[in-house]
Structures are given as structure tokens and as C-alpha cells.
Amino acid sequence: MLGLGIIGWIIIGGLAGWIASKFMGTDDKQGIPLNILVGVVGGLIGGFLLTLVGVDVGSGGWFFSFLTCLFGAVILLWAVNKIRS
């Protein structure tokens, strides 16, 4: 995902964060900046976890990067919800 550049991170992260927040029911509590942050951090989390199980996340392209961000964002929102409750 490093090859996408900062604009790619923001676009993919924002979209993944928004979809993850819809899926997890937290969209009404988040705005666009927080959705972007959740998606980008989710990409880091998802990339780290997938690397641990042997998946090559560097050569997956845009769609795989989006799925990685979405996967990580859902995990991040789940963990935040568990900590809050």
C-alpha cells in the first residue's frame, strides 16, 4: 500500500473507515476525519495481522488494500467498542 501515496491512503482509508463504521453501527458518532483515521489505522492493523499469517500485502493492489483497511478498521472499531463498554 505504500505505492499508493498519501492521497491513496486517504481515499481508501476514508472509504474503508466509513464502510466499517456503517457495519459496526458507529457512523453516527464519527465524521469524515475520524472515518479516514479509522481506515488508515485499520490498514496498518490489517496489514500487520495479514503479514503475521504470511500474506504478502505489498503487492495486492488497490482492491486488496481496501479489503485490508476494511478488515483492520472493523477490528479497530470492535476493540474500541469493547473498551468503552
TrEMBL record:
<keyword id="KW-1133">Transmembrane helix</keyword>
<keyword id="KW-0812">Transmembrane</keyword>
<protein>
    <submittedName>
        <fullName>Integral membrane protein</fullName>
    </submittedName>
</protein>
<feature type="transmembrane region" description="Helical">
    <location>
        <begin position="6"/>
        <end position="24"/>
    </location>
</feature>
<keyword id="KW-0472">Membrane</keyword>
<feature type="transmembrane region" description="Helical">
    <location>
        <begin position="61"/>
        <end position="80"/>
    </location>
</feature>
<feature type="transmembrane region" description="Helical">
    <location>
        <begin position="36"/>
        <end position="55"/>
    </location>
</feature>
<dbReference type="Pfam" id="PF04226">
    <property type="entry name" value="Transgly_assoc"/>
</dbReference>
<comment type="similarity">
    <text>Belongs to the UPF0410 family.</text>
</comment>
<keyword id="KW-1003">Cell membrane</keyword>
<dbReference type="GO" id="GO:0005886">
    <property type="term" value="C:plasma membrane"/>
</dbReference>
<dbReference type="InterPro" id="IPR007341">
    <property type="entry name" value="Transgly_assoc"/>
</dbReference>
